[in-house]
């Protein structure tokens, strides 16, 4: 009897990737998503003009990403120096947008809510940390997925799609920032931010399509996947408005979190990528130019 018990087939537990922590996080995210979808539907039903403005702003950014991919269909090649300069310029634009269109409005929103100077600074600092931490965790989740297949074609395909997902994750805070901006701060600031994001997305779309084409994908496939990577922005934008619709008091934190998320992407991904091929000086000059362009846009549209 004992030996029969010992020889019973072992119990198959849950898959190794399905850990209790991931189950809990997925459950929380699901609840939050349903709440946001409810707010989203309600605001669309009520024809909230801020929702339409955010959708248009996010769509403009997605269109800019698509526009940036088009040269890959016609141009023979781009030098690595050009590639890195585009990255640096985009980083400069987004640094300017982070400072002028997110951090400063977040401080103003906290102050308008009655917070003092120290309290406003701490609120915004906490939001920046939260946004940066959230993107860091999501980025690790994307990049730590194992590629189990040993077929070279399958490995290449998985890596390419992981790359597209990583870029889409990069676009998530940009879209959220647009939505939060249109939900709470003045229209001119929100328009300035959306314009800055769109300008940055043109070289970003080019960079994505070039990277995919360089690893063997056809021009058409590279352009198509680059366009897909930008579609997250209008979706994230309307969810940003829905978030503020649930709790307007979250505005300072939401603006700061969007700033922190974008800041982490710039510092952790874009700037290192622009410097890894020895074109750091050109990329840095382009970054300064991009920052100046965003400064001018913010002043002109204010």
How does this structure look, described?
- The chain has 302 residues and is mainly alpha-helical.
- The protein has one domain (49-301).
- It is built from 12 helices and no strands.
- α2 packs across α10 (232-246), α3 packs parallel to α8 and α5 runs parallel beside α12.
- The longest helix is centred in the first third of the chain and has 33 residues, at 80-112.
- Mean pLDDT is 76; it is low at 144-150.
Radius of gyration: 21 Å
Number of helices: 12
User: What is the helical fraction, as a range of percent?
Assistant: over 70%
Task: Give the overall shape.
Answer: globular
Sheet having the most strands: none
On the 0 to 100 scale, the average pLDDT is 76
Content of β-strand: under 5%
Structural class: mainly alpha
Point out poorly predicted stretches: 144-150
The separation of the N and C termini measures 83 Å
* Whole-number count of domains: 1
Listing every helix as H and every strand as E from the N terminus to the C terminus, the arrangement reads HHHHHHHHHHHH
**Strands, total number:** 0
